[in-house]
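Researcher: Here's my situation. A collaborator sent me these components and asked whether they could plausibly form a single complex. I don't have experimental data yet, so a predicted model of the whole assembly would be a useful starting point for our discussion.
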Amino acid sequence: MPLQVISGNYAQAYAAKLARVQVISAYPITPQTTIVEKLADFVASGELPAEYIKVESEHSAMQVCISAASLGARTYTASSSQGLLLMHELLHWASGIRAPIVMGVANRAIAPPLSIWTDHSDTIAQRDTGWIQYYAESNQEVLDTALMAFRLAEHDDVRLPAMITEDAFYLSHTVEPVDVPSQEQADAFLPPYKARDILRPGEAARLGSYIGPDLYMEFRYKVARAMTRVPGVMAAVEEEYERITGRNHGGPLPTYRADDADAVLITMGTATTTARSVVDALRARGEKVALAKLRVFRPLPMHELRELARTVDRIGVLDRSYTGGLVGAAYSEVAGAMFPARERPLLRNFIAGLGGRDITPPMVETMYRRLLDGSDSEVEWIGLKERKEVTVDG
Amino acid sequence: MIEIRFHGRGGQGTVIASELLAQAAFLEGKIPQSFPFFGVERRGAPVTAFTRIDDKPIQVRTSITTPDIVVVLDPGLLRSINVIAGLKPDGLLLVNTDLPLDRLGVDFHGRIATVDAAGIALAHGLGSRATPIVNTAILGAFARVSGLVGLPSVLEAIAKFVPAKKDANRAAAEDAYNRVSGLEVIVR
Amino acid sequence: MTSYEAQEDLPEVCIATESSEDVYKTASWRTQRPVIRLEACTKCNVCWKFCPDVAIELNADGYPVVRLDYCKGCGICAEECKPRAIDMVKEG
Amino acid sequence: MARLTIPAEEYMRSGHAACPGCGATLAMRYVLKGLGPNTIVAIPACCWTVIGTPFPTTVLKVAMLDNAFEATGASISGLRAAADALKIHDVQIVGFAGDGGTADIGIQALSGMLERRTDAIYVMYDNEAYMNTGVQRSGATPQGARTTTTPIREGSRGKSEPKKDVMAIVAAHDPAYAATVNVAFPEDFVKKVQKAATIRGPRFFHALAPCPPGWSFPPEKSIELGRLATDTNIFPLYEIEGGRYRITRKLGRARPVAEYLKVQGRFAHLSPAEVAAIQADVDARWKRLLDREALG
């Protein structure tokens, strides 16, 4: 397919269209709006014969998808920040009822104060809802991952909802060349959705029900088991996608120049791109630094993280969110994953880029400096405006 | 530590019985714990509640599966659920019934006490024929046969915590204390 | 009812398909039951119509029959029976 | 045998977990008699969540979906969207929610469903408080009624605000059809449901569901109380179609509200003056309803 210069939001919309979603339901919120607008255009023009329910809130958007999925429809929605937080109750519901809903999220900071700019606090705050969570670095990755998410979510061994997050404005409203798969490629990759355990008119069945202490735990265990099967199915899905499109985004924790490295920085989303340029620059100056992109946050790639811990002894985790507490969420998860490893690397947590603040090359360089010099503070807010700050040029 | 499990039906005051017992034990300087099995509260549907009484802080937070004492506020339950599940062999079963022991239809060879708490409750105008409120009467009988709490502290708990018909409830408890039968009585 | 002893017995999703009538005999809830004097019954089926538990069925001749497995003894049938053909009798 | 005045088929089973004398079970029973087997019932957290019995059993012989407390309106929009997308044509989609789940926490999704003209039926079964959680006051609790959160104390005379007029709120959305129904009048109830089944677009029912423990009256009086609610004009039976009101039960002279109030423990504390105030309010509302009907 010829390259098109499109935004991350359009990439999400194209993925939903190529997936031939049957029910869309969404409520507008900056910066997600051009996803739902583009989808409205696809539906209105007949390019996408879906039912599009324009609801009065994000909470209702997710309920529409859940109830539509309960009849066996392939469903899609999208949101950001405050809207995602409003949906929170129903995110648990979607995974609990095993509805393979796919959602695009344009990451946006959480109020107050109100901010329409990027950070990951909104989707990190959904890490406990049983959803598969991807953090994309480019519009190409957004489109490919969203399309793959349908195949993964609907897989018989998984049957869990998935969200594909993209940084507000850095991706959502940034246009860049993207290879949009053809409908033929998409159809070859993604078969029609064959739902199971759904409701049928005329059949006595109650989906959802209620349950006492005798069997609740066993149903939650089923969700946990499904989550353990995700890595294997994800690998197979990515392989299949590569066979059809030639593209592979490197699994849950793709690394860059990490074979022989003194220090690795783990990043999420578009900060990865900037960090990659800094790795090249430092490498050119003989500094053996590397990069690992935490592309899948749920399920956390424990195996790959432990592998990384085995080969590198200084690891930094860049959290583009603040979730209360003392350290960043990604840091505490990575630290948890690495704790049982025999060789435990020095770990440092960097919090940067909140509320849309740029994560600049000098900031990334500072992070590598802290790792190489072995800073004493375990967590540091990089790029914070502080009284003692000497303005660093560049 | 003594563990007591109450069985009744929605509307009979089972949970209040469990709590009143805890209050009475507290009045005697003991440390109680009382909680219901929070299930389907429907008038008529089976209800379970638990009380633990000890001399020191209670270090367990589970339902009671091997009770020392089982109290049955509704004799109909004997036919529909296994009220004596896990009851210790040397435990005590106290049942609100006017039937003699041999017709209770309960396969338990430990100590059994019975009292017509329903009759006593109705005599004191507590509840209706369809749903007699037997909780305070059964507690009076409990004081007599369990040896765990005295009648005075049961009466004081009723006075303090039973919102309506305090006197009738106290009288019912006292009545049941005197009329509980079918067991060599442990006099405190 | 299928006995769900272990997580392997469970369906992947919490979807309930078995009939409540197979499991829940709500007879034990009642303290009184309806007794119908058929000689006084006019087969007006009001009792069938107003039973919240669908615990009255009409036989081939159109007479009401109480499904005692399920009657909770609420007394609506006796209260609404125009010819007063239903008495509520104490259980046990 | 006297002819049955409502359909014989049953789509609600016995063995459910409702209190003896429960009006909400009759409401479900009559709705399903009106709609038949190809019905999908969506319910939020409410009495019916528990009445429907726990996994692995179900009480309805039709399909049933549990949804979030606030989202019944959205749930039925989703079901209809999927039915259309999947070309499932012969299906009645019904939201069946309590008064709190509709008039309070669920009103946003209800308004959304009505505004986007979802082709579905929404039934609010009204037992006039949060009964599943033990009789706490809702927006639909009548003025003066005792609940656990509007106790009777010095200076606290039960619920101080008037009952939220949900039918007026729904009517403001210009639904395809809306009607009040009462389990004490099954023929009127089922007839309206059957009529609604033939209409497309958003339809709404306000169903009175007397509740023995919640209103504190003996269970055998459920139907009698339902009847009195309508015959005192406290709960008039009417339908709205194309904006036109039509009252479906009119007595020569209404019975005094006192007859309805005195049988219920939740109103036992009312003084004659408070009863008179309720009577005046009921008379005023009845007159407004007559005026609306006269408008045609």
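Model: Some features of this prediction you could bring to your collaborator: Chain B has one domain: 2-179. The domain at 2-179 of chain B is CATH 3.40.920.10 (Pyruvate-ferredoxin Oxidoreductase; domain 3).
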